[in-house]
Amino acid sequence: MKTTLSMLGGAGSDGASPHIGVNGNWFIGETDTEVTAEGQDGTDGTDGVDGVGVPEGGEPGQVLSKTTGEDFDTAWIDPPAGEAAAVAPDIQTDEASDITGVGATFNGEVLAFGMTDMDALRVAFEYREDGAEEWIHIGTQSITDLGAVDFVAETVLNVDTTYEYRMIAWDTLNPEISAAGEIKTFTTLAYAEGYIGVAGEAGFGVGECPESVLPAGMDPVSGTYGNYEYLDGSQMVYIPKFYYRIGHDQNPTYGDYGDNSIHVESMHAFEDTTAAEAAGYALHRMFINAGDEQPGVFVDKYFCSAHDFTADAEYGDDVIASSLKDGDPISSHADHNPISALTACT
Fold this sequence. Notes:
The protein is an all-beta fold.
């Protein structure tokens, strides 16, 4: 029998890992091998190509800038001039005053210019009906001093209507510098001098006579509704100047009446008759006297009847035609209150 003997020993334990000591030599475990870990210096390499660098010259404060799209094509330039921060003017909207049926005074105040060139400051007002989106610009003016600003918005508003308004400001040299004041509200009066009203609503067709043209001896009984009484007791109504438009496709009732539709606008709706005509309206002939436009006319409220003043010395001793309630209308018939009975007409 043959027997085989193994000559291999058992596995050895791990050896110590080499490391670099504080003196720069290799160590195995705690043993200094006295061999430096740093190798010997190699031979010097050849010199590289010189870099492009920056152009010579330049002044203190200048910066380097590319002059073309080519690489390394640069030059010294002055830096862009800095700009001062834009400061908007400080303004406020004040409450409206002198409110009438068709106008108001808009008020505001400039508290600070907010810019160097105050001559470039402009202010104005914007207004719109409550609930509307678009603002209407009005009353642009130059400002040279701080303080109150106002503008009379005369005959541009509608009666009994609530409006929003605000003051605005801007720099004419730099329109991006602007400001808007707080929005204020006000409501116009339910009536106005010279306002004829709205077709289909109470009071349409008559109005209040402006004090400046009210004839002597004509006293308002209910001026708001156009009723007046003359010295002789005649009852009169005042019809303010108005414009009318017939058969226009923009008339509110055009869809119902077509060419027979009629729309009436107050004299306050337009700047003048030329503007009204441009919109297709015409001025009624009764508001033109000797070539001049009149703000309105008085008409008799009742058919005229013979009015005997012979017993009243204050008014003379003639029979005149007066617009009286429950009077007998005069006529051209000899038996029915004839015109010939009006002695004041002979």
